[in-house]
Amino acid sequence: MTHTSPEPSPSPAPAAAPPGPPQSTPSTGPVLYDVVGAVATITINRPDAANALNLATKETLLDAVRTASADRSVRCVVLTGAGDKAFCAGQDLREHATSLVERPLEEIWETVPAHYIPLAAGLATMPKPVVAAVNGVAAGAGAALAFACDFRMVAETAGFNLAFTGIGLSCDTGTSWTLPRLVGHAKAVDLLMRPRTIPAPEALAIGLATAVVPARSLRAEADALARELAAGPTIAYAAVREALAYAATHTLEESLTLEGELMARTGMTEDHRNAVAAFVAKQRPTFQGR
């Protein structure tokens, strides 16, 4: 997917994100959380189970998303899966099969409001950019998690599968909102009602992927993008996210009003003042996310 933007003169490259002390990360657990500089990486860490989401993984993943969102020193987030087979296979069906026998149905489906809804909302409304590094198959809720991110860097060996109706379920984790905005209503209907694995090249062609890269260089490419975004105007990025989400369900007049409010908000930031001064001085701007 090609992105274009106005070209002021001069057009300086973004400065590198200020380095910060890496935070130690446990080497085990269903989700790993690591911060280097201004980039937080969240890794779903169940490669032997296709990074499927059992209860412990959902709870730990939600904690990680909330931690990254609240940490003002984090200016970009990368979400990925461990191993090279799967990004995330969605709900752990082995655990689910056991629950269908042992637990009341009403209790089982509490996981949607307790986990899947806040996960989708947390990623989609994060006040900083989120990059999904899709290292393998992303299925069901796993695909939905990637769709809730701003960018999807996809390994050429990876793919997406909207598997919900294949097991007799509707869609969740925000898919009804994100998917049609990426591929259009008609294509979303097709992908949800006739689930199949969408290979990386097709995912790029229909708008599910931002870029497709060789599997061996996925993390390097995703990390480079994350560092670029972490060096940018974080508050402006959050405002763009807010404006796009609002405009999707509001009138032109209402959207213009919000744009005015967001311009005033971002126009009062240090990042804006410093960037204008740098432009006038023909210097490279630096952004601090404030």
Question: Remind me, CATH topology of the largest domain?
Answer: 2-enoyl-CoA Hydratase, Chain A, domain 1
The gross shape turns out to be globular
User: Unreliable stretches, pLDDT < 50, 5 or more residues?
Assistant: 1-26
Tally the structural domains: 2
Radius of gyration: 20 Å
Distance from N terminus to C terminus (CA atoms, Å) equals 29 Å
What would you give as the CATH superfamily of the largest domain? 2-enoyl-CoA Hydratase, Chain A, domain 1
Query: Helix/strand/pairing class, anyone?
Result: alpha/beta
Strand content: 5-15%
Looking across the biggest beta sheet, what order are the strands in? 1-2-3-5-7-10
**How many distinct helices?**
12
The CATH level-2 architecture of the largest domain is identified as Alpha-Beta Complex
Mean pLDDT: 90
Main sheet characteristics:
6 strands, mixed
Count of β-strands: 10
CATH class of the largest domain: Alpha Beta
- Fraction of helical residues: 40-55%
Order of helices and strands: EEHEEHHHEEHEEHHEHEHHHH
Attribute tags:
290 residues; alpha/beta; 12 helices; 2-enoyl-CoA Hydratase, Chain A, domain 1; six-stranded mixed β-sheet
Structure commentary:
By secondary structure, the chain is α/β, with parallel strands linked by helices. The protein has two domains: 31-230, 2-enoyl-CoA Hydratase, Chain A, domain 1, CATH 3.90.226; 234-280, Lyase 2-enoyl-coa Hydratase, Chain  A, domain 2 (Orthogonal Bundle), CATH 1.10.12. Helices cover 45% and strands 15% of the residues. The protein contains twelve helices and ten strands. Strands 1-2-3-5-7-10 form a six-stranded mixed beta sheet, sandwiched between helices. A four-stranded mixed beta sheet has the order 4-6-8-9. It is globular, with a radius of gyration of 20 Å. Residues 1-26 have low confidence and may be disordered.
